[in-house]
């Protein structure tokens, strides 16, 4: 039967023509999986995502050439656009004229101008947002939390994420900027639920963007995300969301379809139970295909790794496949086996240690060798790295 869900009474945040929070319908979004500089493909990607019912489409920008492409894309679409800043926070001044929202990651602000206080960098971002009538998202990710927070909280990585988000919310408030939403993402759905609950308990006024990062391939990635969203949405937490799936570029609209279906099911009282063994056995984590991916072979590799590793389905082993240099190095460290993909080859890791760098057509066999060693509990000798 339909559920009566009382949404958290957050403040309203305007993102172009879209309102998030303040009682508005939950907004569903996705991210373009094309290279931003490939203007034709990116415009087509935005159209695919819009056609699926997206309220907001995000694009990554990492260079001045990306900014130039973004200006052209903006002129060719009526979509509500968000941009994803990477390590160079100063790009906000260039991208803000072309978008409705800017997402920045607090964990990335220490990369550039290390001597400059983080508060000064946040002030610059907020100043540009005001100047260009842009909303912000404070996006905290499990694999890229501020090193100082990691050192402080140790094994409590959820605590590190929550404090980082609370700290940046306070900075923006003190700067007089309140037109922002917050997200706390992890590849572990339980940590997403816990992190959002803890943050909302402290700041129930701030609209929340929900996501399980690197949820992986469907259907598993949809199931992981659904379980997290069911619990949070049922508690009235969540004003906008994304289902982050590893998909071929032409299928990115499936993220929107999955998000809309989850919202409809929760409000209709249709839930999945969580079996006791859900978090046991083989766990494949893979990031959503996006414009940061440097080789589209990453998507096929993720599918091949999942198929190859099925013989280990009853073993508690986590394999993480990341598609770019932004998420790859840090977000594979906690997995038993990690693969982070570059333009021409793949860095294969066992835990945080590099096994070697291999061409795409050779890394699958090398991964199986490492997987056998992990299952057997034997030390992993490093394979010769390919140049």
Describe the structure concisely for a colleague.
This protein is α/β, with parallel strands linked by helices and about 375 residues long.
Q: Main beta sheet: strand number and arrangement? A: 8 strands, parallel
Note the beta-strand portion: 15-25%
Uncertain residue segments: 381-387
Q: What helical percentage do the residues reach?
A: 25-40%
Shape designation: globular
Order of helices and strands: EEEHEHEHEHEHHEHEHEHEHEHEEEH
CATH H-level homologous superfamily name of the largest domain = Dihydropteroate synthase-like
Mean of pLDDT: 90
Separation of termini? 59 Å
- Put simply, the count of helices is 12
- Strands ordered across the widest β-sheet: 8-7-6-5-4-3-10-9
Give the beta-strand count: 15
> Please, how many domains?
2
Structural class: alpha/beta
CATH architecture of the largest domain: Alpha-Beta Barrel
Task: Assign the CATH class of the largest domain.
Answer: Alpha Beta
CATH overall fold name of the largest domain: TIM Barrel
Report Rg: 20 Å
Note down, in words, how this protein is organized.
The chain has an eight-stranded parallel β-sheet with strand order 8-7-6-5-4-3-10-9. The chain has helices at 39-51, 64-76, 92-95, 118-131, 147-153, 157-174, 189-202, 220-234, 253-267, 297-308, 328-331, 360-376, and strands spanning 13-15, 18-20, 27-31, 56-61, 81-85, 101-104, 135-141, 180-185, 209-210, 240-241, 283-286, 318-322, 337-341, 345-350, 353-359. The radius of gyration is 20 Å and the shape is globular. The relative contact order is 0.11. Helix content is 38%, strand content 18%. Helix 5 (147-153) packs across helix 6 and helix 8 (220-234) packs across helix 9 (253-267).
């Amino acid at each position: 039967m339909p559920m009566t869900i009382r949404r958290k009474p957050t403040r309203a945040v305007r993102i172009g023509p879209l309102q998030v929070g303040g009682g508005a319908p939950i907004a569903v979004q996705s991210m373009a999986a094309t290279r931003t500089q490939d203007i034709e493909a990116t415009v087509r990607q935005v159209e695919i995502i819009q056609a699926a019912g997206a309220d907001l489409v995000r694009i990554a920008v990492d260079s001045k050439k990306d900014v130039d492409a973004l200006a052209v894309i903006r002129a060719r679409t009526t979509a509500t656009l968000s941009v994803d800043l990477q390590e160079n926070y100063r790009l906000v001044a260039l991208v803000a004229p072309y978008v409705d929202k800017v997402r920045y990651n607090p964990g990335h602000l220490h990369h550039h101008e290390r001597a400059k206080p983080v508060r000064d960098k946040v002030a610059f971002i907020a100043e540009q947002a005001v100047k260009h009538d842009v909303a912000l998202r404070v996006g905290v990710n499990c694999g890229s939390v501020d090193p100082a927070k990691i050192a402080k909280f140790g094994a409590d990585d959820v605590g590190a994420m929550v404090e980082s988000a609370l700290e940046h919310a306070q900075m923006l408030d003190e700067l007089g900027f309140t037109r922002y939403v917050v997200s706390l993402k992890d590849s572990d759905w339980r940590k997403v639920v816990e992190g959002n609950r803890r943050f909302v308990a402290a700041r129930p006024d701030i609209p929340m963007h929900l996501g399980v990062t690197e949820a992986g391939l469907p259907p598993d990635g949809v199931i992981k995300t659904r379980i997290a969203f069911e619990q949070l949405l049922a508690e009235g937490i969540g004003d906008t969301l994304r289902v982050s799936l590893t998909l071929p570029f032409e299928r990115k609209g499936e993220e929107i379809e999955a998000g809309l279906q989850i919202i409809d099911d929760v409000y209709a009282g249709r839930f999945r139970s969580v079996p006791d063994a859900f978090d046991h056995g083989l766990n494949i984590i893979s990031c959503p295909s996006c414009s940061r991916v440097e080789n589209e072979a990453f998507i096929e590799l993720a599918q091949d790794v999942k198929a190859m590793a099925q013989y280990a389905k009853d073993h508690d082993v986590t394999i993480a496949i990341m598609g770019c240099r932004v998420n790859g190095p840090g977000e594979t460290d906690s997995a038993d086996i990690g693969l982070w993909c570059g333009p021409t080859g793949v860095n294969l890791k066992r835990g945080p240690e590099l096994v070697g760098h291999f061409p795409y057509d050779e890394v699958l066999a090398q991964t199986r060798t490492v997987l056998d060693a992990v299952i057997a509990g034997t030390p992993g000798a490093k394979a010769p790295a390919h140049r």
